[in-house]
Amino acid sequence: MIDRFFRAHPRSVGESYGEHMRVAARVGWLLIGGGLACFVHALVPRFHQKTGSGLIKRLYEELHGRGSG
């Protein structure tokens, strides 16, 4: 059961549990920051005009094709 919950998916993308945790946590923090920038942009359109779309493009390029999981 531990293997199924903690190791199977990281292994499917070629990472250890720790490596996968670092990547996933980093992506999560970036998405939180990008989401906050989008809310600011919604309130004041002059601010963060390209922050959200730029982050999405950057994360797509980083994560696209990283294994089958």
Give a topology summary:
Blueprint lengths: L1 H11 L4 H27 L7 H13 L6
Helix pairs in contact: 2-3
Q: Would you write up a description of this structure?
A:
This protein has one domain (2-63). It has 3 helices and no strands. It has helices spanning 2-12, 17-43, 51-63. Helix 2 (17-43) runs antiparallel to helix 3. The radius of gyration is 16 Å and the shape is elongated. It starts with a helix and ends in a 6-residue tail after the last helix.
> Mean pLDDT, rounded to whole units?
93
Shape: elongated
Integer-rounded radius of gyration = 16 Å
**Span between termini:** 18 Å
Task: Estimate percent helicity.
Answer: over 70%
Low-pLDDT parts are none
Percent of sequence in beta strands? under 5%
SS field, number of helical segments: 3
Structural class: mainly alpha
In N-to-C order, the SSE pattern is HHH
Largest sheet composition? none
Count of folded domains: 1
Number of strands: 0
Could you provide a short overview of the structure?
The chain is 74% helix and 0% strand. By secondary structure, it is an all-alpha fold.
